[in-house]
Write a sequence for this structure.
């Protein structure tokens, strides 16, 4: 995997930026910050001292950027602060300190009316338990955000029908949420969040409440929709494999703080600490890693060796390498040589994820 | 089990010791027996002075309100009396159909026709018009308070206990202040009914709004809802089922209060019809009118409940205006047509007197026949209950056992034998079920011997305080103590004990009987299907309709009151027992069955302990129902606080009535908190929620 921007026409323009965001719960959270300034030198020790005063630190100095058209995944176990952060991004939860920059402007300075306007036009959100209104049928649920804007019924229906097609709910327009399966309900949730055509799309554990098989299917559909719409996405999950599947870049959170940010492969190849490495244990490495990831600089002649594209998965390469000890030349998309992939390279890549080493008598 | 004297037990032995000592010396130390007259605070006089002052100074204000409120009532009455009965019945049927379907419509039709044919139409409409005005007011007021309580924790802390008080103070107790303030007239019933019916609306509004999930609210916010939109388009519709349940409960409360308020008289409504015929001992007439009340109650209940559970399924095909509003169209067109028809066919307008059916005379004859021919049996039942249950509880075995009642004289031998037997029973209970049960057996034995009314008040106050403290912590202990001391120092303690005596027996019998039926129903679907409609009917029945059959057969007296209370209070015991047993965790039952439990073992060793917390809530409700009925039952002869409430009402003595009412509320609240605390404790111990 080469430069960023491989998928979906990702660019380097920043859509949303989360800078030194803190969220502290308790009697008087403001006492720990001057002027809502979140840029505090030693994040860890500050969080510790706050916790000693019976306050709860849900988010500690969280910073990251979401680029235009990017799927940014925040992954963490329950209680790690990932849901708090996504709510800070939409100001469902008011951050205690820090800045949230949306299209170059500080969201935290927006007035209530401005905020409502931003939510009406720029943001969409999908919830873990769907958050559908039980008294409205599918089409009215989807058109609800449009109704709040005062858009007339005919236009509402037309725009809602469009997203209904997108999520594949044709024919269920007049069903009520209680008559739908979990997967279908979440499709309604997705359609509703897209109805206003937001640029920024928040998904808070959207598939966690679904069966594994449906979950997989919904992930595929989610990726398909994103192929078409190119939204800037913040996606929350506690499922590492789900994160790997869909993320362009991802952040791992623990105890309110970000442990590591990077492309999935960066996290796998160079885990920041044992906490991250723990997650990588169950990862099907050979499927995640590509030839480019394990390519080593060429040392000798590459004449007469086989050639392969850099985004080929290691899994597909294994049979070839088993019979070709010298390995294979890895090319990038434009034909330039990235290096040589060898069986040794595969083994060392795999070895980087090993925590418990066997003691070998030498 | 080695017998160690731990601290918990020590307290209980202290209670028993104090009880025995005060029993022993109460003949010499008279203040133990009766609280000295001189120390009674003349609270009722103070209250009367205050009330007189209020009426004098602010009377014009309240009378003004009464005058204003009279208009809408009169308006509705005028409409209901002017409209031909056929139109009203037709509209009721349309509403019933829209709420729940054909079956309810058929029932509504039959029930309303009954009112016409039996000649109770005008009286019924008078009652309905009061309900029709009070319910919308109760809903508006209740909703407003509910919303306030939802948004403000501080408001909720004030609102909730006030609601408790409004709902536990017997309705009769605040009829009088309303009468004094607002003056005689229809408004008294209206205001009383408003005060009584808005609390359930408040509760359900708060519960409903609280129950809206965070994600639904967040999804509303993310859809860009303004605060107003969020409230009216997200929170309220999502909570609508619970809120409509509040409407249902408010309607039922309102009707029952409208009926109760007719005791003041002056309103030619259906409640008055029942009451006046009952006073004249006209069995047939009062039961016929009573049935009307029950029918109105059932229709209102089913319609409002039907609206609450109705799934207003949106039909995408119904695009035209007429299709969407078809009920309105049918109602409008039908009403006009029938109205016009009624102008031509006079029977549709006014049901002729001559065609009214009146089987009352036949019913009265039948009753007389029964009473005359079964006098022996009736007397025997009464005697057995009186000699062997009521009298011993009231004045104790030491006074109740005599040659006349039990057939032998109570001698020293008997007393010693009883003591030994009871100590043995307590010992056995301790070994079998634990020390607390053993203590309970001892206490019951002491009570049974000396009688409830002979127990010195300090001993009872101490017992209840310690009980409250053990069950619910220091707060409940202090609360119990203060509440009981209020009864003591205002001088209503003896009446309170009489109330507890009647109600206590009724509750014990209701609970045992109801729970047994509930257990049966939980294991037998046919029994369950048989019992459910009976329960539903008894619960929607306005309280004093239940009195009628018992008064007719057993005449006026404590025994009749007892039966009436039992007839009303056993319903929750059945419901909760069945509910508790039917909703046990399935895996536990499967595990027990897999271990080889017999059916009997499964019931007693697995199901009952697990269902016990829910059954305790049933006991709680049984007590609440019992106390509610106690006041009504005072109409037919009890001597407790309920009677004092009537005396207050009859003599226009505000102080006496309100203190007795507060006294009942105090007893109800103490019993409520104790049983709730106990149930909660058991639930936590079992790690389950009811």
């Amino acid at each position: 995997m080469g430069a960023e921007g491989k998928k979906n026409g990702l660019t380097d323009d920043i859509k949303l930026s989360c800078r030194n965001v803190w969220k502290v719960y308790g009697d008087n959270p403001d006492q720990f910050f001057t002027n809502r300034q979140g840029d505090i030198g030693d994040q860890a020790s500050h969080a510790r001292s706050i916790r000693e005063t019976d306050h709860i630190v849900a988010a500690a100095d969280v910073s990251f950027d979401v680029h235009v058209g990017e799927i940014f995944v925040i992954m963490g176990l329950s209680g790690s602060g990932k849901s708090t952060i996504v709510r800070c991004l939409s100001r469902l939860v008011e951050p205690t300190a820090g800045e949230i920059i949306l299209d170059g402007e500080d969201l935290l300075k927006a007035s209530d009316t401005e905020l409502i306007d931003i939510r009406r036009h720029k943001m969409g959100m999908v919830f873990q338990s769907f958050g559908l209104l039980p008294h409205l049928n599918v089409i009215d649920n989807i058109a609800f955000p449009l109704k709040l804007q005062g858009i007339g019924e005919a236009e509402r229906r037309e725009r809602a029908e469009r997203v209904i097609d997108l999520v594949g709910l044709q024919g269920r327009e007049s069903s009520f949420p209680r008559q739908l399966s979990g997967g279908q309900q979440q499709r309604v949730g997705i359609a509703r969040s897209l109805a206003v055509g937001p640029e920024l799309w928040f998904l808070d554990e959207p598939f966690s409440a679904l069966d594994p098989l449906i979950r997989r299917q919904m992930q595929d559909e989610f990726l398909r929709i994103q192929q078409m719409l190119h939204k800037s996405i913040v996606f929350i999950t506690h499922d590492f494999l789900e994160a790997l599947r869909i993320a362009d870049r991802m952040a791992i959170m623990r105890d309110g703080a970000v442990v590591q940010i990077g492309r999935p492969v960066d996290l796998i190849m160079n885990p920041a600490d044992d906490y991250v490495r723990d997650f990588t244990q169950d990862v099907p490495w050979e499927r995640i890693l590509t030839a480019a990831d394990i390519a080593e600089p060429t040392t000798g002649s590459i004449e007469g060796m086989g050639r392969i594209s850099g985004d080929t998965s290691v899994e597909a390469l294994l049979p070839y390498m088993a019979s070709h000890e010298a390995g294979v030349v890895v090319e990038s998309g434009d034909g330039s040589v990235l290096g040589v992939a060898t069986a040794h390279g595969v083994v060392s890549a795999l070895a980087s994820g090993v925590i418990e080493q066997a003691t070998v008598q030498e | 089990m080695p017998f160690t004297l731990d601290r918990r037990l020590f307290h209980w032995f202290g209670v028993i010791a104090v009880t025995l000592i005060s029993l022993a010396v109460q003949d010499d130390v008279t203040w133990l027996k009766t609280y000295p007259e001189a120390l009674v605070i003349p609270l009722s006089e103070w209250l009367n002075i205050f009330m007189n002052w209020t009426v004098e100074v602010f009377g014009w204000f309240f009378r003004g309100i009464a005058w204003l409120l009279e208009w809408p009532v009169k308006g509705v009455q005028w409409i209901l009396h002017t409209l031909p009965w056929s139109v009203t019945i037709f509209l009721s049927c349309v509403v019933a159909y829209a709420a729940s379907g054909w079956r309810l419509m058929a029932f509504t039709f039959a029930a309303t026709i009954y009112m016409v044919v039996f000649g109770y139409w005008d009286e019924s409409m008078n009652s309905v018009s009061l309900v029709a005005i009070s319910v919308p007011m109760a809903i508006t007021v209740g909703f407003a308070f509910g919303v306030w309580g939802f948004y403000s924790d501080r408001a909720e802390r004030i609102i909730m206990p006030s609601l408790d008080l409004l709902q536990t103070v017997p309705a009769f107790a605040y009829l009088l202040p309303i009468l004094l303030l607002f003056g005689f007239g229809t408004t008294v019933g209206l205001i009383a009914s408003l005060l009584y019916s808005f609390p359930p609306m408040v509760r359900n509004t708060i519960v409903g709004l609280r129950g809206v999930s965070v994600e639904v609210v967040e999804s509303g916010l993310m859809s860009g809802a303004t605060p107003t939109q969020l409230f009216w388009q997200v929170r309220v519709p999502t909570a609508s089922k619970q809120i409509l349940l509040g409407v249902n409960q408010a309607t039922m409360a309102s009707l029952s209060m409208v009926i109760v308020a007719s005791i003041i008289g002056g309103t030619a409504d259906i409640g008055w019809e029942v009451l006046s015929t009952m006073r004249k001992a006209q069995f047939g007439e009062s039961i016929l009118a009573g049935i009307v009340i029950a029918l109105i109650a059932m229709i209102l209940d089913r319609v409002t409940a039907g609206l609450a559970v109705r799934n207003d399924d949106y039909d995408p095909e119904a695009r035209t205006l007429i299709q969407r509003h078809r009920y309105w169209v049918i109602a409008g067109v039908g009403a006009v047509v029938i109205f016009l028809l009624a102008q031509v066919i006079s029977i549709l307008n006014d049901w002729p007197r001559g065609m009214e059916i009146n089987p009352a005379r036949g019913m009265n004859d039948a009753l007389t026949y029964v009473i005359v021919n079964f006098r022996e049996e009736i007397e025997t039942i009464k005697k057995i209950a009186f000699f062997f249950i009521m009298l011993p509880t009231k004045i104790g075995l030491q006074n109740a056992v005599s040659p006349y009642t039990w057939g032998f004289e109570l001698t020293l031998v008997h007393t010693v034998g009883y003591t030994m037997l009871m100590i043995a029973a307590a010992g056995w209970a301790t070994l079998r079920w634990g020390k607390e049960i053993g203590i309970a057996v001892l206490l019951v034995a002491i009570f049974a011997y000396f009688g409830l009314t002979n127990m010195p008040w300090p001993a009872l106050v101490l017992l209840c305080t310690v009980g409250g403290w053990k069950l619910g912590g220091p707060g409940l202990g202090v609360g119990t103590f203060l509440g009981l001391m209020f009864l003591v120092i205002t001088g209503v303690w003896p009446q309170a004990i009489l109330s507890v005596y009647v109600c206590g027996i009724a509750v014990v019998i209701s609970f045992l009987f109801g729970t047994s039926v509930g257990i049966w129903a939980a294991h037998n679907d046919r029994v369950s299907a048989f019992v459910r409609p009976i329960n539903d009917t008894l619960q929607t029945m306005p309280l004093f309709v239940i009195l009628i059959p018992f008064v007719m057969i057993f005449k006026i007296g404590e025994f009749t009151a007892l039966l009436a209370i039992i007839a009303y209070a056993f319903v929750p015991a059945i419901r909760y027992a069945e509910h508790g047993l039917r909703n046990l965790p399935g895996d536990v039952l499967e595990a027990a069955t897999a271990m080889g439990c017999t059916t009997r073992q499964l019931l007693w060793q697995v199901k009952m302990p697990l269902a016990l917390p829910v059954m305790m809530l049933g006991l709680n409700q049984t007590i609440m129902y019992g106390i509610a009925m106690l006041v009504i039952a005072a109409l037919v002869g009890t001597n407790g606080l309920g009677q004092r409430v009537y005396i207050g009402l009859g003599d226009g003595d505000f102080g006496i009535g309100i203190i007795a009412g507060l006294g009942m509320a105090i007893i109800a609240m103490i019993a409520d908190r104790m049983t709730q605390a106990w149930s909660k404790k058991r639930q936590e111990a079992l790690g389950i929620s009811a």
The first helix of chain A runs from residue 43 to 51.
